[in-house]
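Q: How would the C-alpha cells look for this protein?
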Amino acid sequence: MSDMSYLAKKPIAVLGAGAVGKTCAADCKLAGREVRLYSRSLKSLANLDRTGILLDGIQRNLYGFERSGKAFLDVVSNDMAEVVKGAGLVIISIPALAHEDYLRKLVPLLEDGMVIHTFTDNYASLLLRKFMREAGCTKKVIIGGWSSAPYGTRIEKINGFWTNHVGAKYRAISLRGACLPMTDIDDFMESTKYLPCMDSVTTGNGPVRGDTMLDIGFSNVNPVIHVPASLLGVSSMENWSLVYGNAPDSYSMYSHGLCPSICRVQYQFYKEEVAIADAIGIESPYYSYEMFFSRRSVLTQEYMGLDENGKDNVVFPLDKPCDEGNTGPNNINHRYITEDIPVGCKIYHDLGVKFGVPTPIIDSMIVLGGAMHEKSFFKETKYDLDYLGIGHMTKEQLLDYMRKGVYVEK
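A: Here is the predicted structure in C-alpha cell form.
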C-alpha cells in the first residue's frame, strides 16, 4: 500500500451541486479541509458565496456520528478546471445520466496522484476509464466508486424554491466500494481516511471491499428498492395530494408505498441480481428474505448495522406508520424511475442476456416503467454493455479487466 498522506494537504474537488454534492462539500469543509465545488448549473450555485451551505438534520446512525454547521467553500464555480486543478481527491456526485458530460470534461484535467470517488458509482468508473482510453490519457489516477452515498440527504425546498440548506436523515456507517482496476484497492480504501464525508464510515464499521466495479453495480440498492416500490405504488403517489389531500412533496415511497406484496417482488428482483453475479463469477452482497420486509427495506443496515446474528438492529414494521424514509418520488419523472430503470435495470438485463441468466422480474420493471412513460426503456437509453466498453469481452477477459486492468480492444 502506498503512502496516501499527501491527500491531507490537497484540496478536495466536488463535482455536482445536488443534495449529495452539497452535503459532501459542506461536510468536508466543516472538517477543516479546503473544498471546491463545481456544477454546470449556475442555478445550483446561486448565492453560495453569501449563504454558504447549512448542514444539519437528524443524521441518524448507530454510533451517533454528527457534524453540523454552516460551511463557506473556498471555490464555487461552473469552471471545472478552476475547481479540479491541484486537487487530490475528486468527488463525483451527480445523477448517472449526467456522468458522460462531467467525465469527458474531467479527463483532460486529470493529474497524477488524483483519487476519484463516485457516489453512487452507477458504472461511472467504467465510463471514466473508457473516456481516458479514447482520449489517450495516461495520467496515473485511482478511479473507484461506492454502492451508495454516505448520507440520505435532501436540499430544503420552500414552495418550489431550492435553498442552500441540506438536511441529512442518516449517515452511513458502512459502504461497499471498489476501484478499476482492483490492483489499486489498497490505496483506494486508504484514501477514505482523508475524505471527511466518509468519516462516519471510517470511524463506524468501516468501508467494505467489493469484488470489482461490477459488484458495486449489484451492491447499488437503488434499483432493487426504488423501482418496484415506485412503479407498483404509483397509484398512492399520484393520488397522494390530488385525492387524499396530503401536502405536496410529502409522499415517501418508503413510508407510504411499501407493502408485503411489493417486498416480495423486491426480493425476487434481488435474487435475479445474485444469479447474474454468480454467473459472472463475482461476489455480491447478501440479504436474507426477511430483511426486505421493513419500511426502510435493506437500507437500514447501512446506517444502523446488524446484530451478532446477522439480523437488522432496527426494523420498521410494515404494519405501522413510519416517517423515517426520505420523501419522493412525487411523479414518474423522478430519478427513482428515469435513472434506476434505464441505467440500473437495463445493465442488469444486458448482463443477464450476455451470461445466460433469465431476468423476468427485472424485465417486467423495464416494461412497466416504459409503458408509464410511453416509451421503451430497452431502446431509449444509451446504457448497454458496449457503452460501458465491455460488451465484446468474454467472461475471462471481463474479469481480467476488472481485476488487473488488462483491456482487450474490440
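The chain has a mean pLDDT of 96.

The chain has 18 helices and twelve strands.

Upvote if useful.
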